[in-house]
Amino acid sequence: MIQASLKKQLHGEQGEFQLALSLHVAQGEFVALFGPSGVGKTTLLRCLAGLEQPEQGSIKVRGDTWFDSSNRINLAPQQRQVGYMFQDYALFPNMTVYGNLAFALRKGADKKRVYDLLDMMDLGELQHRKPNTLSGGQKQRVALARALASEPSLLLLDEPFSALDAQIRVRMHDELLRLQKHFGLTAIIVSHDVGEVYKLASRVMLMQSGAIVQQGIPIEVFSAGQTTGKFRFTGEILAIEPMDILCSLTVLVGNQIVRVVAMPDEVAKLNVGDAVMLVSKAFNPMIIKL
Amino acid sequence: MNRITGKIVAIESNAYMSLVDVAAENVVFTATLLETPETVEYLKIGNLVTLLFKETEVALAKNLDGLISLRNRFSASVTHIDAGDILSAIALDFSGKKLVSVITTRAVLRLQLAVGDQVEALVKANEIALMAGHHDH
Question: How far apart are CA B93 and CA B103, in angstroms?
């Protein structure tokens, strides 16, 4: 579906480096780009969307050439059939929800698609509202609907849910997966959230200073070189409390809150809000039928 | 979490699980894993691994005698006792490495544990996880 290879000089916090990579994504695949800030993840998305131009390389999508430096082909963003969703919703403030979606339709497209999307995403009741009257989660659902309004062949998501609280984030993940499957979309997401990558992506690419250094199915990539514990969850620390000679950690795992016991010296390196992995041997958990 | 780095010296496995023997500081530790050399690349004799086990899974004994099913036992000396109302953290010196055992304060009193005591530390094989490479303190 996507075959891209590109090179672009970038100015990072640690000086200059080159974005240099090849990317192959299959039709209908959901891929995650994972890595620290400033390694070129967003630039890669912007190059695919046509918002930035690589110095060298080519981008082919479903056999169409979107970019080719040797033949001086560079399609404008609106010619690329890309749905793009950012962390800040970038909705038009002066337009209603309906207006935001309708604006994103392709020229001559049937307005029915707007109503279908409003319906599918349960936004019907909000269609006459302006963005500033919506909650963060509602705005992000509108942004997702708008990204889909242009009937994209490729959906690009740049940390779309990082500003949302955990519960709404989980709902958005479900919604996104449902829509991605429904439309058979090819999607690329930039994420810092291991849990999000596990849930959404069938393949993760680890990026470091402009290059893809490792890729594979998320569980294999994230557990490489790690413990053999089978009972393993990632979560976010909500509270750290001393408990006599030990400490108690309250951790949000998915949408469940769990408490675990930790030693004071382990806790000294942790802060509320940190992501942690909770690991136990597969032998430990007891099972109670519900 | 207690960490001890050692070398894999033996692996016994069936299709589902393995008993992995790891030599560290003149003691051979054993870990039961739901992995096999076929599913995990680092399970090879001679490879460096780190044994991981929680403080609360380390039992202590004095003058231990007789047969015991536990695979992992090693001598250590008590360097510090942090006694709480219910639980106590016992810092141990195991061949120069610091390990911690958390047991009940009741047990500390019953064993009359004091700094300087020689004790046997005991850990069940299925409480030990392995991590590839050296991750010691």
Answer: 16
